[in-house]
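Morning F.,

Quick status update on the modeling queue. The single chain you submitted on Monday has been processed. Sequence for confirmation:
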Amino acid sequence: MTGVDPGHRPGRGCKTEDVLSVGTVVMGVEDLHRAAAFWTQALNYVPVREITGGDDFAILAPPTGAGTHLALDVSETPVQPHPRVHLDLYAGDAADQASEIARLVSIGATRVDWDRYPENPDFVVLADPEGNRFCVIDTSHS
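Structure tokens below.
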């Protein structure tokens, strides 16, 4: 990156092509096939390559290939009750949020009895079949 000012920060005249973007989010899982089955249905993603019996890592992507990918990595680390990093899935409004939550629960997600909800939250905390927490956000909430 020749000619780049080391003190340069995004939002200060930085060109878009000079900024990093998130390509893949990696999530630890216990059962790769169970996690892949859930997340392919939840996000309408597809495996980048076929997942075989001996695999311990898989990458899921939007069908077009464009956008953020989700990698599933077999891990023995226990799920954190209050994870430092999690996914936020966006729904259009409260009706979309309720519909998506019902759909996600029907394919294996569970509602989490979250003890940190603020007053009038715009999100609902769920867990995937592996116990990983994620949120469904009502993006119309103000």
